[in-house]
Amino acid sequence: MKKWLKRIGLAILVLLIVLIGYVAVFEFPKLELISGFSAKSLASGHFIDSRSVEQVAAEDNDIDLVRLANLTLNESSKTAVADVFGFKRRTALYRPGLGAMLIDDTFDQKAPYLVPKRVQPELTAPYPYGNREAEPVKFENIDYERLQKAVDWAFDKPGEKKQRSRAVLVLYKDKLIAEKYAPGFNKDSKILGWSMTKSITATYYGILEKQGKLKISDPAPVAAWKQDERKAITLADLLHMNSGLEWEENYSEISDATRMLFQSRDMTRVQAEKPLTGKINSSFNYSSGTSNLLSGIIRQQFNSHQEYLDYWYSALIDRIGMYSMLVETDMAGNYVGSSYGWATARDWAKFGLLYLRKGNWNGDRLFDESWYNFVRTPTNGSDGKYGGHFWLNAGGRYPSAPSDLFSCNGYQGQMVTIIPSKDLVIVRMGLTEEGVFDFNYLLGEISKAIK
Q1: Bridge-based pairing state of the strands 175-181 and 165-172
Q2: Residue 314 contacts by C-beta under 8 Å, 6 or more apart in sequence?
Q3: How many CA atoms lie within 13 A of 347 on its CB side?
Q4: Which contiguous run of DSSP H or E holds residue 178?
Q5: What is the pLDDT along the chain (451 residues), one digit of tens a residue?
Q6: C-beta of residue 97 within 8 angstroms of C-beta of residue 116
Q7: Are 193 and 291 a contacting pair, CB within 8 Å?
Q8: Which of 76, 100, 239, 269 has the CA that lies 20 to 30 A from 247?
Q9: Burial track 287-316 (b if 16+ CB lie within 10 A, e otherwise)
Q10: Can you tell me the distance from the alpha carbon of 162 to that of 261, in angstroms, rounded to the nearest whole number?
Q11: Residue-wise burial string across 27-53, b where 16 or more C-beta atoms lie within 10 A, e elsewhere
């Protein structure tokens, strides 16, 4: 009997050692990502959109494992701190004008820094071309009952937590025809677009090309590539996400994307350091690192950091009245062009309207129609799903919606959808991904409400 007890005890000890080893090797490193996500989410949500610690914890950080993080907010230092059971503490610092960023122990929080100089003249026209309240309008060809039913469907009933939409907004023929918000949100709430920011970043290439400052057909100006086969990668290849460069985009594991977003000081360098693993212009591979590399290349177009910071607002964001928008930076002062753009649903819709009008913003042309056509051209190898930093419906991703639909998409189901054939812009902001939230139904029903 004693021998059996010893054997059982030894087996339990071996299993415990194996379990501890597994956690140490595979799970413990994830704690830094969990605490990093949590701290960054709290700092941004609170200081950009005035959300409470409790609201961020219950909603923004209500994700498997992420909800384990312990959160602390410091109003005076404008920092948020998170850890998991006391391990892997991470700090996020908010700086007005630049947003929140994760910092490491070497970052000097007291060092002076530059902020973008923004010019925001009063816009007296009604929304969307101005910031006065939208004018009420009724179109005879709209089935408003069907439209409202589709919008209402996107939101949870009291006590539910399934759809998790925060905002749905619809523009038709430059007019606001539907708008709804979840409790705790309204037309002034700033919401993170996540990867919708990629489409913002790409748009500067259309603007710079129109201004004659670059050509997207040119080789990407990356010094480290000049002596090897990567020198053949063009800006267009990067914009189409088919550079052939190695990259792993996985948010549930430690990957290139999560290491970049939650550990890197300079996010523009990560993709540039990767080798070729595919064929240039034939290997579609979605990469947040590529978008941040593109942000860094934009920075190279200017003689000073101040000019780079100002340009993002003067050339696009403030130029079309997206006054609520803020794009956050990394520790090196680069805009995180892959992921960190915040704006109200109304301002996100303005960006969609700019593309619906092919770059002409109420008489001010930001980019040429050739750029509009480029972003809607399917990337080689994407099966019609992706273009120039925009998602496409050319391959029938949403069978109930028109095939000319193209969109900016972000983590947890952020979407700005442009449907030229219907003269529509549809914005949905929320916390549920495609597969849980039925975008095909929402987009299809709204489209079909326009006769």
Answers
A1: antiparallel
A2: 118, 119
A3: 27
A4: strand 175-181
A5: 556 656 665 556 545 443 333 333 345 578 999 999 999 999 999 999 999 999 999 999 999 889 999 999 999 999 999 999 999 999 999 999 999 999 999 999 999 999 999 999 999 999 999 999 999 999 999 999 999 999 999 999 999 999 999 999 999 999 999 999 999 999 999 999 999 999 999 999 999 999 999 999 999 999 999 999 999 999 999 999 999 999 999 988 899 999 999 999 999 999 999 999 999 999 999 999 999 999 999 999 999 999 999 999 999 999 999 999 999 999 999 999 999 999 999 999 999 999 999 999 999 999 999 999 999 999 999 999 999 999 999 999 999 999 999 999 999 999 999 999 999 999 999 999 988 999 999 999 999 999 9
A6: yes
A7: no
A8: 100
A9: bbbbbbbbbbbbbeeeeeeeebbbbbbebb
A10: 27
A11: eeebbbbbbbbbbbbbbbbbbbbebee
* Cα separations in angstroms, 231 against 220, 278, 380, 381: 7, 14, 19, 21
Report the amino acid identity of residue 125. A
Residue 180, strand partner residues:
168
d(Cα 17, Cα 5) in Å, to the nearest integer? 18
Structure tokens at 358: 């092919």
